[in-house]
## 1
Amino acid sequence: MKRHNCPNISARPQRRRAKSMLSAFAVTATAVAMLCTTGCGEPAAASATPSAGITPQKFADGVHAVMMADRTVYATHVVTNLKKQSSPVTADEYWMDSTNAIPLPAQMFRMGAELVDENPEAGFTYSLRSEWPLNEQHKAKSEFETAALKYITANPGENYYGEEELGGNKYFVAVYPDRAVAEACWTCHNDHPDRAADYPEFGKDDVMGGVLVRVPIP
Amino acid sequence: MQTRWFAGQVSQWWLWSGLNLALIAYFGYAFVAPPSSVKASLLPGETTHGHYQIELDCNACHLAADDPERHSAGNVMTDACNRCHANQLTLVNDTHPAKKFRDPSNADLLEILDAQDCLTCHREHVPEQTVSMGLTLPTDYCWHCHEDIGDARSSHAEMKFDSCATAGCHNYHDNRALYEKFLDVHYGEADHLVSAIVPSRNLKQQWIERHPDKSQLYIADADGPSNEPAGSTIETDWAETAHAAAGVNCGECHNEKKASGETSWNDRVAMSVCEQCHKSEVDSFQTGKHGMRLSIGMSPMLPSLARLPMHAGASHQELNCNACHEGHRFDTRHAAVEACQKCHADSHSLAYADSSHAQLWRSEMAGELPTGSGVSCATCHLPRLTGDDGIWVNHDQNAVLRPSETMAREVCGHCHGLEYALSALADPELAISCYDQPPHIRIRSLQMAHEYFEARRQKSSR
């Protein structure tokens, strides 16, 4: 597995720290300065390289923040809320051909990822992975992914960053912990009939897997 | 002597030059000619049953992609496949869409089997390696990605690696009648359901709801020309059937609007006119073998062009709406059986009249059975589907054969249990006899799915 040598991206897994006001100001000021130098009316060409004014890591952190916000809202305010109301509508793996059924949070996430895959303008891909997948499609598919999942489980609260080469193309890969944010997450997984004997018993905020964001780099 | 010899040489030179020029001209013209038999000389090999009707329109498949940067043999062809098939695949909830393989982590798998390119599995002009459904790969292709299926499904552990696509088990694209939950839901159904009836068409009700200003018309209301030949039944055919009942007058189909804004009477009614009210039917007609030539601007299909055996007398019957729905009665009962039998002379079509399904149809026509309980050719090949606006008839008579298990869900399931239907569809002899007898061998997939879910249910209840 190759490591990124760019100063903007740590070559080792980083501990996520709260940004200080100062660094936030510095980043903002840099971005504003770059925008002004490229001309406000002419957006800079999109690129995966740091020279475009935003690092792959910063980009990955941003899109991950959005996708996790949506994922949390769906799991908490839709799926769990229906459950609390004893609604006839439930999240069901076979929702497409069932009445009173909506997609599971993991399916919702995956369908969104597939729509992004279809969009040639997106410039990145993302996926859900777990060391304990109930759906085989979500198991680690490379040595990098395996190492990343192990790391974010062993180091709760930390992300895992690095580079990976797949099919002759290089990618910056960010792996974020996917936590049990809503009651529906851990109760459904803990009660699932497909769970293996060594399947962990999850509770609130436990790391259940990881969200991978892949950004192509030169 | 020398002069004559030289003259002979000159004439021979002209002869051979002329022959070569004629050959160059012939093949040169073939490259630029419109779709016609002259292009046959350029075909590198026989095309599949799905495409032979349009094989002389090379550009239907070989037209370059719009974006020159994406232009390669692979993407040009896949673009062409998608022009006709992308929507079909979406409608059948394709199990293996290209987008499923776009995640970069699939790179190693795509190296072995590029599931994003239609041509990986479906090449053309290679009849010697083409099997059912236009597949040109060895039938063990599933194994490349699913070799460890036995780990997740113990029931599959001992199964042969090339048996996945056996009827009643799995298809690559369309598994709507085969996926595990559907099998479990329909487990234990009787072979013959208590309510054995197909949905009723309701286009007339849909029309009336959308056109409250329309009402039943009578012969006196007809606005057609009054120069009908003696003995003509045009007016009575119209007045006694659906168009008059829906308030659709002669001029609404026959009046043609010119560019100048004027209208003039036209005896011939174009398919685009039918499409104004029967859009789903006309659109679907053009995705099946009856109308696919029309969809790309070619002349209508003729029975004389077909690969299936046809009645000689029907050789030059053009395939358009009127071929089956003869004006002005547009008789759907005639279209459901007699219209098919008029052209088709293959063993399956010839066996229909003696089948138990045909007997049900005759009983319905005689009023001995309720409407919708008979089984015509159209019952199976032009299924009645539920759409956004109500029940409509899918006029792509090949859709239920892509693959035949599609029929289990859209057709057979109205009268038969799923296990019975899938077992029958898996028997090629029954397919020829129009499923005249119950299936001898029962498929195991429903039992397996039921056992799988039963085990899950027991786990959950602990």
## 2
Amino acid sequence: MTVQRKSALLHLGVPLLLAALFFVLPAYHMGNLSRIMVLAVYAMGYNLLFGYTGLLSLGHALFFAAGMYGLGLAMHLGGVSPAPAFLAGLASALVIAGVTGFLALRTTGVAFMIVTLMFAQAGYLTVLYFGTYTRGDEGFVIPQAARNLLGLDLTADSIRYFTALLLFSVIFLWLGWLVNTPLGRAFVAIRENEERARMLGYDVQRIKWYAVTLSGLLSGASGAAYALLFGYAGATFASVQYSILPLLWVLLGGSGTTIGPLVGTIFMFYLIDYASSITSAYMLAAGVILVLLTMFAPGGLAGELRRRAVPWLP
Amino acid sequence: MDLGPYLLLATLEGAITAAVLALTAVGLSLVFGVMRVVNVAHGEFFMLGAVLSWFVASHVGGHPALGFVAALLIAPALAGLIAAAADWLVLRRIDYDPERTIVATIGMLYILQQGALMTFGPDARPVEPPFNQRLALPWPSFEGGFHLTWPWGLGTTSYKLFIIVAAVSILCILWAIMARSRIGLIMRATQMDGEMAQAFGIPVERVYAFVFGLGAALAALGAVLIVPVQQAHYLMGGDPLLLSFIVVIIGGLGSLPGTVIAALLIGLSDGIVSVFFSPTLAKIIATLLVAFVLILRPQGLLGKRAT
């Protein structure tokens, strides 16, 4: 079997497997998995920038929150119906990612990391500052009655699961395709050797900007879907913690692999879920496992898998 | 009421923030400068200093000054030892790879935070200051000839002034160590070129462990100084981490004088701006300004051009 066919099978297999899981899993894990699939979209967006283009951002919560509040505020204050509100979420993430990306990309390395962190922090404080509309830390609930897409009730477990799966699959397949296009290869070229990519005639600055903007758009899609499917938007989702989480998911799962973000998100989610069921000190367990993983699986779970067993893993 | 007295008070409060921030940020800057490591757990070492300070002070009886002095000696030393051990056990083994270091230090952050929650509890706890006389501050007045007045409410405490003096002295000692002593020479040599230093027989690994511990101890020192005013809490590490990050980058990566200047700038402006404007708005503006300083001058105030 050729590498392309194996890779295509994997990319079709994962969504099919997730669809099949719906019929097997108990309700509790079904709910978890819906959440994981939405968050994995965030991780995949982050991976596009960090794993494929090699740019470490600490400000992705800004884009996640842009999607979340773009949709949330449109529905909460404007009474807009879900479909156009989702587009509003995407649009606000796109604009914010485009502008901050343009500004932040004037710096490189650690300065890029800090500038993105600063922009995200300014965004978080802005959410707090306009507390009259956003209700700050407390957040607001999007009423069940409003979460209705094309006559489907998004609060029903099964419909929520398949909506999350649809979003996840579309982006998963699209990314699987994108990383093999010339643009995707250019991202990797920049990650591997920026100078050489520039000498080969690539407009590095523009390609990096594409990466930030696309990555921000995907993060925003995840944020908007999260608010829509789980009916809540709050300032916590804009905080530093939510910038660090996708980094952890991606690094744990394996950065620069298409499957890594999903693996990392599932792993981290169930790690905290499982650890908190046996001990209240679940953060301690999470911390220890993080440290151990960085020491013994430097490429993340999927990265180790690729290194040891399946070298064709995309 | 005149504007002047308010400004004086805000400046004083800002100077205290700046003093503690300078200590914490210099620790972070030192670690980055010598080891090229971004220590995300730095804020937790600050927290560790505060919590240990409470432990020590609450177990030493007698006059509060005894407990405070004991805390001042023991807490930074312990925090430094824990950090050096973490470096030896973890960071050394992952070869200080930038990405993996960030994840590993995030792991340390979780471990330290949870460890503090489990042993210390979720409450904020105070440490009694060793001395705390109330000092009224004079204000010059020119109405009807020059004389000093003591406007109501304009005052500080002797302990708050002590924080500033102590921080300045510690920074001077650190500067002397870096510029004059053999240890400082070794650290600077390692900073310039680790491989060359290794070739000249400098035990680079041990220097790294020492520097990582020293950085944590400086953060802990800042925390010990501030707990009599601010109370110790297991979640208190977030703010100092973020602020030190800003200060270190603004000052120019790895430049100690730059770090101190940036700490003064940010501490004072934070103190003054939040007295006159809404604190949240002030923070938004300050954060955006920092971002733009970096965009226009990525190497920071006193940093050298990109390496």
